[in-house]
Structure prediction request, 656 residues.
Amino acid sequence: MADDPSPTLDTLLQEGRSFPPPPDFAARANCRDPEVYARAEADPEAWWASWAEKLQWDRPWDTICKWTPPRARWFLGGRLNASVQCLDRHVEAGHGTRTAFLWEGEPGDTRRLSYEEMLRETCRIANALKELGIGRGDRVTLYMPMVPELAMTVLACARIGAIFSVVFAGFSAASLRDRIQDQEARLLVTADGCWRRGRVLDLKAVADEAVAECPSVEKVLVLRRGQGVETASAGSARDVAWEEIVPRQAPECPPESMEAEDPLFILYTSGTTGKPKGIWHCTGGYMTGVYATSQLVFDLKPEEDVFWCTADIGWITGHSYIVFGPMANGVTQVMYEGAPNHPGPDRFWEIVEKYGVTVFYTAPTAIRAFMKWGDEHPAGHDLSSLRLLGTVGEPINPEAWIWYHQHIGGGRCPIVDTWWQTETGGIMITPLPGLTETVPGSATLPFPGVGAAVVDEAGKEVETGGGYLVLTRPWPHMLRGIWGDPERYEATYWKRFPGRYFPGDGARRDERGRFWILGRVDDVMNVSGHRLSTMEIESALVDHPAVAEAAVIGVHHELKGQAPVGFVILRQGFEPGEELAQELIQHVGRLIGGLARPERILFTPELPKTRSGKIMRRLLRDIAEGRVLGDVTTLADPGVLDQLARMARERESEEA
Ligand code: WTA
Prediction:
């Protein structure tokens, strides 16, 4: 992009344009009333309660919010079931025949499922889970492809009060094992395989390897993905075939009446240590938040819209904006199993055209890839059904924003750049598409009722300028904790700026109060919109017999946003070389999953450390990105730097 800036793009960026909501969009938007911000701000609890009231409760709450920092509990005394919000409610209201999912498998196989069918299948699965001895409070791990059964199994767990935990199918056996062990799951639900770029991933074989070290797992329920998918797994007595237990169940299953604060799910995400955190969310507050944000941010109109969120259900985006938020709103959605460039680089646009997608939500990393693949791919399809676009997962560079606006949105669709995290459960900083003027690169304003600020090192609020992003008051869909580790919850999010939630991001506020998210300020990287911990990758490298010490940093990457680079000190007797570098990269892939594989390995005799022994990551980043070195006075042995910088240069000239 940098070498060949298209003149129009360049001009647009220089203009520093802002984009008011298009009048015809604003006129019909779910949220048209600018007073909404002031109203929510005046009484945030009443605001959130007004959304909770739109859900179907078995018993109303007595107290809206009990805030005993750093713990918040919402809708105390209230009881409800999450699956009822997503299924029964719509069927009972006479919308059972409305399409819930238009599913597209990677090889091109398709399915259309109505809300009625989703309810029946969910109940069958729920009954099967019960037959397998699963009940309220039990943990169930899901390691599945992007098929409708994944959404149904999530809802089936919610229906019987089991706590589900989805592990993205790209994670390794070791990662799956660690997560199952951490939550002591009794059941694993998996499949024989899934499609990825024309290849079948043998999920069952990976699951077998993981479960071999998981004594808590009593049964493994195995779905057949069909269409030429075949596992090499030998099978075991623990296995239960989906087709033997699910189809014969009754299609009704009474929902468990859950307390608002009962856990709904656990989802693991990377933190600053080597061990992923099991973030857990509750039932009432979470459902309230994802319901409200889906309706206002994506402007969902169940009668008309076809919503497509391209995330995998293995990430929080898929939990909140495929399963719970949009389904609670009763909207029709596209679900796609495969990669954006398989079989061709226009796959997404073909799907948008085929199903008449109206609201489209994806990640900046995907947008940058589309830009690189060429304008002709979206141009070759009719994208006129689109009326609103969204992004999530990482800061969006203005070039990508403008390209998205022009080439996908046809210059007419508002773009919502949504900032949030696994921990926040739902969108926190975002434009409201019918109200907010947008500027490329800014997530703009806190969602109504959300308190956000930028503070300096000392915690003092910065009105205009840069600093740390904090959230200043509780919200219903906030995480309730880290599974099995209450202290870590407090230490991670609430210690840095007491009384305020610290998400780990840097941010800037402009003169108009808009937020510009600058990215992580901790040892977490954002690779293609996926969170990775430097420590986790370092541990994986050090696990290899050749490695004595390793430091991993995230360096700027044109497509992925950031990419991991590993600096490695070898043990005696091992020689640096391309072959070993490749082996180490593969080793990380095997231990964590393909998404964590370092982009490059640089062998080094030493690592730059402060006098107190801390690795100077900032310096490593400067070296890897070829920048001039900053302040190095705290460095123990400055000679190390010359050597590292020289190596990085040599490396680059070799590649060039
Ligand atoms: C980053 C994904 C800039 C941020 C929903 C955050 C963003 C982390 C944005 C959470 C955005 C997410 N602009 N940065 N619009 N959205 N991030 O938990 O660093 O996978 O802390 O949740 O992604 O990643 P997570």
About this structure: The first strand starts at residue 63 and ends at 68. The chain is about 35% helix and 20% strand.
